[in-house]
Specification:
The complex is a heterodimer of chains A (about 200) and B (about 270). Chain A is an alpha+beta fold. Chain A is built from 5 helices and 9 strands. In chain A, a hairpin with a 4-residue loop joins β1 and β2. The radius of gyration of chain A is 18 Å and the shape is globular. In chain A, about 40% of the residues are buried. Chain B is an alpha+beta fold and about 270 residues long. Chain B has a single domain, classed as paralog of FGE (formylglycine-generating enzyme), CATH 3.90.1580. Chain B is globular. Classes of the chains: A alpha+beta (about 200), B alpha+beta (about 270).
Amino acid sequence: MMTKFIALLVFGVLLVGCATEETPHSPAMHAANGMVLNSDTPALGDYSLYQVESQWTNQMGDQLTLDSLSGAIQVVALTYTSCEVSCPRIVADMKRIRSKTSSDNHFLLISLDPERDTVQKMADYAATQDLDANRWNLVRGDPDDVLEMAALLGVRFRKMADGEYAHSNIITILDAQGTILYQQQGLGSDLTDKTISFLNGI
Amino acid sequence: MVILKKAIVLVPLMMLLASSAAQSRQTRLPSIPTGMVEIAQGEYAPLYKSPDGEDSIAVSAFLIDADPVTNQNFLDFVIQNPKWSKSQVSRIFADETYLRHWASDTDIGDAFPTSPVTNISWFAAKAYAKWKGNRLPSVAEWEYVAGAGLHSPDGKSEDGFTTHILNLTNRVTPNTPFLVGLTKPNYWGVRDLHGLVWEWTSDFNSALITGESRADANLERKLYCGSGVVGASDFTDYAAFMRFAFRGSLKAAYSGANLGFRTARSL
């Protein structure tokens, strides 16, 4: 009897785990998968990610805080330069977004792997990938701050035994005040097309 | 009246507390802050492994709070850091249920001062830990400490340990969590890891269950849905399954009535 109860309980919890896969990460963001999350944006309001005070260094070696990115739409993802699996696809999707949307939009790549992603490595990567420094910031920061940004963006990640990182594939659009407007969860041309039309509709 | 009833229940529990505190390991060095205990280095066998993953994760020696952070502890923090009060906290850092059991910004209302603080988000827990000069424990650290029995670092070697933990975990949860420090300290002198409240960890978001890039993440996704239990390292540890499933469902701004935390510090 007890065993059955336990089995049911565990099963119940596992079901909850399944059911919550796509839950939005903030009460104001009512949908998660390629949907508009928060269309009426307050001026640097309660939901601005730029409230975080963490310090970052970009591929030029410049120090910056996130609020210095305000004033332009930012298209953001967490990746790392030595990633060979999905990060090149994330960056490819972002480059496609860049080529098909307003030249006022900016792009931010936050490194999941600050240990290996030195300023030099980020600069080399930007050069190889042809990421124009006027529109792209590749940044590295303290691992604790990376964890915080991941938490804010709803990105889950984990360092694996072979030194690589498993991570969610999420591209986030922040408005000029740093509030999440839209998130693309997953990769591929269909999803990216939706992101592009969203950006062009703003 | 309600408070009075609670007090009557609590008196005998307080006596229990006194006796269990006396049994706790008194190996604290002068440099260890009050309320924290030292955990010796060791190895933690993760419940879920990636296909190429190792069987165990090395855990360095560290300090951890013997008890969860209480309402009173958290009130001290909020008074000194008003931006973490319920009226001022930013919504990206805590949802609407943040500290909802408190009467006001600086009044814990009917809550017990020495109950674990709950209804706090990961961001708030992290900010508190930083304020104390500490940090949140990682999943590996927390599970390593929580895996200890009463007499050894490896609880599973003790008769009835797994069942005992499961019974604690399955207890009907009162609306208001009980006081901290009433349960027997484990081998390390740490209390209330099981059965009182769930606890935040620094890397709770390392449980991968959405939109992953890597093959093992797909495996884990299945694990959470029950069909892939074959990948787990210990089928009998239901309580650990529940903790992992629970962590997988969390987002950092969530505040829950049964979700608290304790802090840790590297050595």
